[in-house]
Structures are given as C-alpha cells and as structure tokens.
Design brief:
The protein is an alpha+beta fold. It contains ten helices and five strands; from the N terminus they run αβαβααααβααββαα. β4 and β5 form a beta hairpin. α2 crosses α8.
Length: 300
C-alpha cells in the first residue's frame, strides 16, 4: 500500500508568498522592476514622448550611446575616473506610466523592515503560514502602507517627492536612468535628447553627422523633458539642467552641494542675527520712550 503525502493546510511555496496582486502577470513583474529601479538608481530623467516608432528609438539610442562614450573618453583625459561600465549602463526605456506611479508610492512610503508577523497577519487575512512575515513589494503590507499614506495626507507635494512628481506622470513616458550621478554624462545626454543652447547645444554636424539623420531629428522633436528624480529628490527641468552644468565630475558636484549648504547656513544665520537686532532695537526704542515719559512726569 503506497504512502500518501499531504502538505500542511497552511503550506505556502517559498517562491509564491501571498500577494495583493497576482505575481505572475506582466504588470506585477513591471511593478517589482520599477521599485527596484527607484531604490537603486540615483539619477532618473523623466520624458514624455509622442509615440516614437521602433526605428526612431533605435536611432536615438545609437546617438545617445555615441555621445556618452565620447564623454567617458574626455573624462578620463581630464583625470576624472568613472567606472568603465557607466556609459553602457545609462539606459533609455519606455515605461508604463500608471504602474510606475504605484511603484513610486511603494518606494517612498513602504519600508519592508517595519513589517512584523503581527502586521502581516492583520493584512493577509488567514492566507499564508501563521507567524510568517511577507514584506515583498507585491505584498498586502506594501499596499496597506501606500493606502495609509494617502489617507494621512502624506502624498501631497508639500510632504513627498511623489507628490511633487505626480503631475508629470501623464501620458506616454520614458526614463533615462544613470547608475551614478555624473554631471558630464548628464550634460551629454541633455545635448542629445533635449538640446537647449547655449548651455546644452546639440552635437555639431561635423562631430556627429548621424544625429542629423531624419529618424533622430524626428525622435528628438517627439521627446519632452519634464523633470528628474535625483538622489531621492524631485527636480524640475531647470534643476536637472543645473546638475548637468556642474563641472569637475563628482568632486565638482560635492563642492556645489557643500556651497549650497553653507549658503543656506549663512542665510539662516543672517536671518537670526537680523531678528535679534530688530528685537534689540525695538527694546531700546521702548526703553527710551519709557525714560522720556518718566522725565516728563517728574517735570510736571
């Protein structure tokens, strides 16, 4: 007589934990890839696009790759060291706008480390193994966190990066992602994808004749830079171009940030000094008025 093996009633395959959404559908996989991208990518440019053709995307990526390789060579000649793979890992990809919007909320408002067995049990409603912790990005805990953030008013532009970028997440979109923050590589990308002379002029016909291919020119006309997500902060187009204008590579970027912090500190100091001086002058004026009033009373 054969032995019949049965699995426990609460058995959950380790590769298929309870999820708020079906993990095997394409949208779920896209969501997980977007949350991973947001957590691991320090520099993301956001573009709206007007339905480029496959040939236009290919031609545009070709010219972008060429411009980035030229910058990599120039940076080495200047003694600015970047990983050899940096230029190759700067990628331009079309995204699903609505799914990316959800991913932004999960990346900002959901912290997997805060999930406990108790909070898991409260949201999975009997699904899964008792005492287990399910904290992946498709989990019920993740979706409960973003719903709580919406109910608490934490998704507004005053209190969140997502709230500042939400108005930009409209229509067909594409992302240009950088594995590191390099102003020089960013400047080269802007010159190709969103030229704006004199700061970011388009490549010359002599240096990059392929850039003037009708397919490339048509693609550039259909792209619109709308903002950026840099070091977990929201940047408008002017802010993106400011980062791209910083000279000196990583050292230059750090110097600019230090300068900004110092300027902010000086501004705060000046404001505090101004307030204290104003208070002192007010008190001195009041003191003089009281003394004059006392003298007048004595004379009368």
């Amino acid at each position: 007589m054969g032995i019949k093996l049965t699995l426990p009633a609460d058995y959950v395959p380790p590769t298929q934990p309870p999820s708020a959404k079906k993990p095997d559908i394409r949208k779920s996989q896209l969501l997980r890839s977007y949350t991973s991208l947001l957590r691991s990518t320090p520099l993301i440019l956001m573009f709206q696009h007007n339905n480029l053709t496959g040939a236009e995307w290919s031609a545009l990526r070709r010219e972008l790759s060429l411009a980035l390789r030229i910058v990599a060579t120039q940076q080495k000649q200047l003694g600015v060291e970047w990983p050899d793979s940096l230029a190759d890992n700067i990628r331009l990809n079309v995204i699903g706008t609505r799914i990316f919007s959800v991913a932004m909320r999960i990346a900002e408002f959901y912290d997997p480390s805060t999930v406990t067995a108790e909070t898991t049990a409260a949201v999975v409603r009997g699904r899964g193994k008792k005492g287990a912790i399910y904290n992946h990005d498709l989990s019920d805990a993740a979706y409960a966190s973003i719903k709580a953030a919406e109910q608490d008013g934490r998704t507004g532009p005053e209190s969140s990066v997502y709230g500042q970028l939400k108005p930009l997440l409209v229509g067909p979109m594409a992302l240009l992602t950088f594995p590191d923050v390099s102003p020089a590589h960013l400047a080269a990308a802007l010159s190709v994808l969103s030229p704006s002379p004199p700061q970011f002029p388009a490549p010359t016909r002599k240096k990059s004749p392929g850039y003037y291919d009708p397919l490339v020119q048509s693609a550039v006309q259909k792209l619109l830079l709308v903002g950026g997500h840099i070091e977990n902060q929201a940047f408008d187009t002017d802010g993106v171009r400011w980062v791209g204008s910083i000279e000196g590579g990583r050292a230059g970027l750090q110097a600019q940030l230090v300068s900004l912090l110092q300027s902010a500190g000086l501004g705060l100091t000046s404001a505090l000094e101004g307030a204290s001086k104003s208070l002192w002058l007010t008190m001195e004026s009041r003191k003089t008025q009281l003394e004059d009033g006392t003298k007048d009373d004595k004379e009368t």
